[in-house]
Write a structure and sequence with these properties.
The chain is an all-beta fold. Helix content is 0%, strand content 56%. The strands form two sheets. Strands 1, 4, 5, 8 and 9 form a five-stranded mixed beta sheet that branches.
């Protein structure tokens, strides 16, 4: 098992966010907003997954944004997610800068 750590970072502004990992809902919250000082909106509880790959789905229903990311955990287990120019983006890193 590998623990995936998901971070909602830049671009969130009073958003309702729903996140699923491999089809199972792991997070749902209203009023998610990026804290400008830290560049962080939410740090989710680590999610254990089997194997070296997972799928993360991020939905912002009220904004009509949704994206599913295939994540190769051999590249790292930290997944920062941002909103830039109305698009959901992600990265996969071994270490996260603000921790």
């Amino acid at each position: 098992m590998t623990d995936v750590r998901i971070y909602l970072t830049e671009g969130f502004s009073d958003d309702r966010v729903v996140i699923s990992v491999d089809g199972a809902k792991v997070f749902e919250k209203n009023s998610v907003t990026t804290k400008k000082l830290y560049g962080l909106a939410e740090e989710l509880t680590p999610v254990s997954v089997a194997g070296q790959a997972t799928k993360i789905t991020v939905d912002l229903p009220e904004k009509g944004l949704s994206s599913t990311f295939s994540v190769d955990l051999r590249s790292g287990a930290n997944v920062p997610i941002t909103i830039q120019d109305g698009t959901l983006n992600h990265a996969v890193v071994k270490k996260i800068g603000f921790l």
